[in-house]
Amino acid sequence: MILTGSGRLAPAGLSPWALQVRDGRIAWIGAPADAPEGELVDLGPALVTPGLVDSHTHPVFAGDRSDEAAARLEGAPYTNGGILRTVRATREADDATLEALVEARLRAALNAGTTTVECKSGYGLSLGEEVRHLLIIGRVADRLPIRVVRTFLGAHAVPPESASMADYAAHVADEMIPAVARERLAEFVDVFADEGFFDLAATERIGRAASAAGLGLRLHAEQLRRTGAVELGVGLGAASVDHLEQLDAAGVASLAESSTVATVLPAPAIVLRDRLPPARALLDAGARVALASDANAGTFGGFGAMPLVVGLGATLLGMTVTEALTASTSGGASALQRDDLGVLRPGAAADLVAWDAEHEGAFALRLGSVRPSRVWIAGDEVALSG
Ligand SMILES: [Zn+2]
What we know:
Blueprint: E1 2-5, E2 17-22, E3 25-30, E4 40-42, E5 48-50, E6 52-54, H1 66-72, H2 81-92, H3 95-111, E7 114-120, H4 127-143, E8 147-155, H5 165-182, E9 188-193, H6 200-212, E10 216-221, H7 229-235, E11 240-243, H8 249-256, E12 261-264, H9 266-271, H10 279-285, E13 289-291, H11 306-316, H12 321-327, H13 330-335, E14 352-355, H14 362-365, E15 372-377, E16 380-382
Parallel strand pairs: 1-4, 6-7, 7-8, 8-9, 9-10, 10-11, 11-12, 12-13
Antiparallel strand pairs: 1-2, 2-3, 5-14, 14-15, 15-16
This protein binds zinc ion.
């Protein structure tokens, strides 16, 4: 199949363009006049990009915390009480209920142009519940064409039945991680390494257990307080450190010198009226930056929000539109250690989106309202709904 268009192929900005898809991968890219023979699909003036890669979401939860968001905006603090409220509601929900919720959330992401989504557990906080949530993600992933990368976030908060943070961290490291690895339920381990959640010693213990089990590491870092979690993550070889609202110049420098991806999440920062992460400083210093949604139960609920996130990167975080689009495609893929996703080059996965727009500037101009008109994953066109 040859896809071709008179419009723009972004973020590189090739126009006009043609692209050959073979065996689910991009086989060739160039000018239409040079295109190989094949069945032709003409996309006219539509903007075409790689499928968006959302490298940070928490889709397995029940209950509704909109009331808490409203209360916070009236001055109530953000504490771990909110997460534990979701944990209670999620533990009470049966498999069919949770599966339907996860499926609707991943469908919303796909309908908005996300072709790869990272999905964390973390609202279970016991071995049985965390395993149940990872299995649910796996079953939904089997039913939908969207690519799913699973992350075990047992260290999201300390459950009420644990004696202490250190006790629970030891349980996560010594029992939960080996079980998750043995059953191949996740590729990554994540830790909420922040004030009031998991301290650096606990995070290090869990990070080392992840490495020992052959799992990658990612951290929630420097969201609530500058703790040094970024330097710890870099030292442990984390694939990505995410949030970074409180990051300072030293932290920016340490990320720039590392291969750890800096993942910024503008949506929850706005909902929490928090500081914005230093995306411009990270890019200027040479760090690899990803933009992701952080769609979750309590601080940002938009599972179809990646087009908005691209726009927020450009309008709010000081990135150019091209930088924001790159951070939301190949940046997210780097954060998931998948260099064959989110890029337009021969050999890469043929995950593509044709948008109802003619220029990538629409992500900024139409903030959150750019929609896909057609989506392909591994070269197969995906049916969009809604
Ligand atoms: Zn998160």
